[in-house]
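quick one: pyridoxal-5'-phosphate bound model?
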Amino acid sequence: MDLKNQLEKVKKDIPSNVTLVAVSKTQAAGNILQVYQFGHKIFGENKVQELTQKASILPADIQWHFIGHLQSNKVRNLLPYVTLIHSVDSFKLLQVINYESLKINKITDCLLQFFIASETTKYGLDLSEAHAILISEIYKELKNVRIRGVMGMATFTDNTEQIRREFKELTSIFTKIKQGYFIDKEYFNEISMGMSDDYNIAIEEGSTIVRIGTAIFGSRIVP
Ligand SMILES: *Cc1c(COP(=O)(O)O)cnc(C)c1O
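yep, here:
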């Protein structure tokens, strides 16, 4: 496995205005350190314990992104280490992130995760749930979270037209939310979409953050 070549190959495909999150879930700290030493500093994990363990032994200037389903009772442990939470999929979770961030005097950057796939197993909000959050008085009082944009996962399928349609939908959701609630907010500018098998389509459809694991690290050993 040639991590350097694989990283360079992926980076060649990604325009400079798109952020690459190297998804390091299940990968050994040694492999992450190698990729770090090739100059890459943004990594994504989907389990709190795994992220915090790795963060505590790997270089402090790594930016850790959380990309998995997040349980409220794990928020407190995650916050000291995390740069961006991609996966806010409920109002309750957003409120807990705010509450715990306030306690440590931090403003936590988050993305709202949307359900765009046809599978029923993927987490996420729909547009009406997002509207309900963003117009509420409770939301307006949340000073310790900053919503930076949206995130979504396409259906796991070979049908590229379906994948493209789903990414288009997420971009359209981003635009509606931007126009409705963040029109004068420069910081609301992120669309996190695209993984190893579909990041080229995602970039064509407006992605600003791609989350890529297998294409960099090779296939994962499923625990
Ligand atoms: C695992 C994972 C990825 C990366 O998947 P690859 O196919 O290995 O690139 C991206 N996003 C999320 C939310 C993931 O859980």
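The chain has a mean pLDDT of 96.
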